[in-house]
Amino acid sequence: MKPVIGVIPLFDETKDSIWMLPGYMDGIRLAGGLPVILPLKADMEDIAQVCGICDGFLFTGGHDVDPAMYGAERSDKCGTSNHDRDTLEKKVFDYALRTDLPVLGICRGIQLINVLCGGTLYQDLPTEYNSTVKVEHHMKPPYDVPCHKVTILEDTPLFMELNILTLSVNSYHHQAVKDLAPSLLPMAVSEDGLIEALYMPDKKFIQAVQWHPEFNFHRDESSRRLFKSFVNSCQTS
Q: Which of 51, 78, 107, 234 is catalytic?
């Protein structure tokens, strides 16, 4: 049987509607998994029930993480947060930690995982992060082409998955990891020094990337490998 992957839903305030980018679902399907969208609002009993049918979880992109979650005051450059989503993801992540189920985080996913583990974020890179190296982190469409490079650190799961030291990535974010949580380790760093990928070494599979494999997996082998490695880890849960 295919492993069931619980996918965190996206939310549109204007339409008061849950929605989903097909790339998240298709990337999982192509890798051999069966994606299901989790409910946005649920109590712990419901979360435990729905998580009980899942073999792993995909933490998607979307809203800015509420700065209150990492003890910071909200900057006027911080984007909209969604309390229901923050709450759902905390419950799901806690469940995944307790049961040692695989988690893959993408964009907001890497930021959220870092925060839930005790780290902090830059709320707005253009106004808070100073670097002599100029890197485009907020690209314009199309989103399936690379816009900067990352250096992959040796002796990390990402290096073992891709077997390369440099990767060109697509990038669409204005927040990023600031202080890395104590339980996490970096896997890749951008040319201007930002953490672009991380993992939790004492868990089976908790990994996250700042770039967007859901936009370019159809044309990029490294993105397909990311999805495949994640789904494979769920198959042996």
A: 107
Q: What is the pLDDT of residues 166-205, one digit of tens each?
A: 999 999 999 999 999 999 999 999 999 999 999 999 999 9
User: pTM of the entire structure?
Assistant: 0.97
Structural domain count of the chain:
1
Q: Is 212 a catalytic residue?
A: yes
- Provide the residue range defining the domain that includes 22: 4-235
From the candidates 54, 137, 212, 234, give the one annotated as an active-site residue.
212
The answer to whether 117 is a known catalytic residue is no
Known catalytic membership, residue 154: no
Reported as half-sphere exposure (CB side, CA atoms, 13 A), residue 59 has a value of: 34
Taking the C-alpha atoms of residue 78 and residue 105, their distance in angstroms, rounded to an integer, is: 20
CA angle 156, 38, 20 (to 5 degrees): 80
Q: Beta strands 103-106 and 17-19: pairing type?
A: unpaired
Looking at the predicted structure, is the pLDDT value of residue 237 above 60?
no
Between CA 210 and CA 197 the distance in angstroms is 6
pLDDT band per the 50, 70, 90 thresholds, residue 236:
low
Domain containing residue 125: CATH number: 3.40.50.880
